[in-house]
């Protein structure tokens, strides 16, 4: 399960720099390369466009005006070549992450690599591709990066790691802001965002428990909602759903699970109602704390396994209204 993203305010040069460091080709060049493949493919007027590798590279050089080195790099980046055993990963790749077909977002997937370089003739093999597929492959890669879903590996560049980290952080902040705005517009509650808590005598004391994304106070019904906002992409296959469960519930390190962390914050709030009453002038300590996760999308994992804390999707909340929280 990975952080999701909408469009975030990053400069184009950050993307260009990260793509160049990660792939050896800038983002703009990658788009140009795939558009050229689409153009050359439709020019052939055949069901399966194909050319000898030497002719293929020559035509790309003529259209793009790139050096032979750039053409070689882009071709290698987006091609699949024959190998002895399919389950044996080439150098620099991992059999589990890049080969197993039930893994989504694999680096050696045909979805990402639309060029098929055959085994014959050995001195100048044939290259096959689909013009529409090349366009989709370009969109796929760009979407993975811009939405923060691109899978980093041990070989990933620091520039790409920084970019993906920023995209995910910005997406998370944007989602929390969107949630805060919705509660402001649809309730008469007091709504606070990114509220730090800790073990001292004030909410903003020594912070070893992290922040509460949204703290919503319903004074009429004497309820305090501690809401953990997660802008995540849902699992698309059984493996990703298993990863969702591990991320939510915890694997070997249960203390690192999302639920455990939020549960600790909830316990602190319940044990310190007096502090909350003082800080927010609640007039009474009879308020009840209710905690839940609010996700950007429905998570299949929550239907596969019971969760210690409630999960609500933002789409469901907006569709059904605030009344669905009465069940907590």
A few lines on this structure:
The chain is α/β, with parallel strands linked by helices and 328 residues long. The chain contains 12 helices and 9 strands.
Question: What share of residues is helical?
Answer: 40-55%
Strand content: 5-15%
- Largest beta sheet: strand ordering: 5-6-7-8-9
What's the number of helices? Answer: 12
The overall average pLDDT, rounded, is: 86
Distance between the termini: 25 Å
Largest sheet: 5 strands, mixed
Overall geometry comes to elongated
Radius of gyration in whole Å, from Cα? 25 Å
Low-confidence stretches: none
Total domain units: 2
Which H/E pattern describes the elements?
HHEHHEHEEHHEEEHHHEHEH
Structural class: alpha/beta
Q: How many distinct beta strands?
A: 9
Model description:
The chain has 328 residues and is an alpha/beta fold. The protein has two domains: 151 residues, no CATH class; 141 residues, Trna Endonuclease, Chain: A, domain 1, CATH 3.40.1350. Helix 1 packs across helix 7, helix 2 packs across helix 3 and helix 2 packs antiparallel against helix 6. The radius of gyration is 25 Å and the shape is elongated. The model has no long low-confidence stretch (mean pLDDT 86).
Blueprint of the fold:
Layout: H1 12-23, H2 27-43, E1 50-52, H3 53-64, H4 68-77, E2 79-80, H5 95-99, E3 115-117, E4 126-128, H6 131-146, H7 158-186, E5 190-196, E6 211-218, E7 223-230, H8 238-249, H9 258-271, H10 273-280, E8 288-295, H11 301-304, E9 311-313, H12 314-320
Parallel strand pairs: 2-3, 7-8, 8-9
Antiparallel strand pairs: 1-4, 3-4, 5-6, 6-7
Helix pairs in contact: 1-7, 2-3, 2-6, 3-4
């Amino acid at each position: 399960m990975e952080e999701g993203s909408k469009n975030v305010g990053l400069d184009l040069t950050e993307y260009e720099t990260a793509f160049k460091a990660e792939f050896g080709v800038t983002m703009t060049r990658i788009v140009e390369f795939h558009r050229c493949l689409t153009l050359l493919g439709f020019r052939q007027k055949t069901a399966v466009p194909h050319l000898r590798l030497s002719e293929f590279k020559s035509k790309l050089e003529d259209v793009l005006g790139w050096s032979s080195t750039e053409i070689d790099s882009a071709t290698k980046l987006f091609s699949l070549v024959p190998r002895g055993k399919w389950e044996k990963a080439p150098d620099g790749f991992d059999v589990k992450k890049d080969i197993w077909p039930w893994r989504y977002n694999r680096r050696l997937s045909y979805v990402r690599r639309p060029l098929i370089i055959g085994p014959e003739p050995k001195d100048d093999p044939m290259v096959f591709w689909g013009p529409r597929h090349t366009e989709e492959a370009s969109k796929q890669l760009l979407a993975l990066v811009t939405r923060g879903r691109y899978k980093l590996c041990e070989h990933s560049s620091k520039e790409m790691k920084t970019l993906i980290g920023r995209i995910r952080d910005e997406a998370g902040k944007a989602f929390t802001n969107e949630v805060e705005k919705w509660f402001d517009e649809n309730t008469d509650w007091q709504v606070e965002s990114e509220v730090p808590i800790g073990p001292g005598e004030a909410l903003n004391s020594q912070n070893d428990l992290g922040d509460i994304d949204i703290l919503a106070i319903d004074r009429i019904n004497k309820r305090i909602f501690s809401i953990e906002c997660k802008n995540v992409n849902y699992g698309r296959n059984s493996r990703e759903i298993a990863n969702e469960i591990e991320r939510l519930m915890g694997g070997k390190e249960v203390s690192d699970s999302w639920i455990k962390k939020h549960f600790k914050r909830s316990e602190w709030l319940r044990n310190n109602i007096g502090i909350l009453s003082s800080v927010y002038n609640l007039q009474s300590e009879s308020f009840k704390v209710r905690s839940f996760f609010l996700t950007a999308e429905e998570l299949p994992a929550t239907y596969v396994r019971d969760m210690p804390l409630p999960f609500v999707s933002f789409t469901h909340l907006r569709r059904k209204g605030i009344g669905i929280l009465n069940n907590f």
